[in-house]
Amino acid sequence: MTQASEVPTTTLSAEVAMPMVGLGTWQLPGRRAYDAVRFALEVGYRHIDTATMYRNEAEVGRALRDSGLPRQAVFVTTKLPPGNAGRERQTIAASLRALGTDYVDLWLVHWPPGGGARPQTWRELLAVRDQGLARAVGVSNYSIRQLDELIGATGQAPAVNQIPWSRRQHDPRLLEDHHARGVAVEGYSPLRGSRLGDRVLTEVAAAHGVTPAQVVLRWHLQHGIVVIPKSANRERIAANVDLFGFSLSDEEVERIDALSTR
Ligand SMILES: NC(=O)c1ccc[n+]([C@@H]2O[C@H](COP(=O)([O-])OP(=O)(O)OC[C@H]3O[C@@H](n4cnc5c(N)ncnc54)[C@H](OP(=O)(O)O)[C@@H]3O)[C@@H](O)[C@H]2O)c1
Asked: Could you list the active site residues?
């Protein structure tokens, strides 16, 4: 079983460290969210990704409390629906009420509101952070141009951009563009976007005695990308955080990188 202390963190600011592996909770409603989060916390996860739009914040919060872990031991992300731009304060208040906590660790703009960067919404997120209701703030599904618009308007870069990242979408230039701006990349749908039966993945998995899904997740980590795989299945929840007993060689990483061009 993975010990919580084994999961490395990435530094978002002097005070905020984000575990590199978290549990995704999209399409986990009600009891399924509660059970998955409770089990994930038992097997070593210390990072949970939810959103107002997932309608499971109350179950995530209840699972956190019932786990008996101190609040500060678990990194919790939730997200502002783009349609709630203009109602940022009410939205974070509702998320905190549902989660049953005084703060979240990361609050993201879920999608660019109306397709635009919306610096005014970003200013509101920064104010919410400064008020102590979110330890860090960021965005999701933003382009580099939109990140630059936010940085240009406020002088402050989002701590994180949560974007789709799988072996099919691997883009070293995009990764570098984020890092050059001090924005951590959090990859969503890491497994959904990967063909797990691919020969390269199955060969590398066999060489390490792990599954192709574990190879894909480990490959993200070795690129410095935070991953938030979702599973409702206990065996897969446990496997998806059991990534620290092996490492990929440079050559294996390059073979998987090359899959993005196929
Ligand atoms: N910001 C955004 O716009 C955005 C968009 C999409 C997702 N997200 C976040 O990212 C999280 C992850 O993305 P995702 O849910 O789209 O996809 P994902 O985590 O890449 O894949 C989930 C799918 O893979 C299966 N799976 C999980 N572990 C597996 C394993 N070890 N082997 C084989 N199959 C496995 C799951 O089925 P089982 O449940 O049956 O295991 C589920 O069908 C979401 O839950 C959400 O928190 C954010």
From this structure: 54
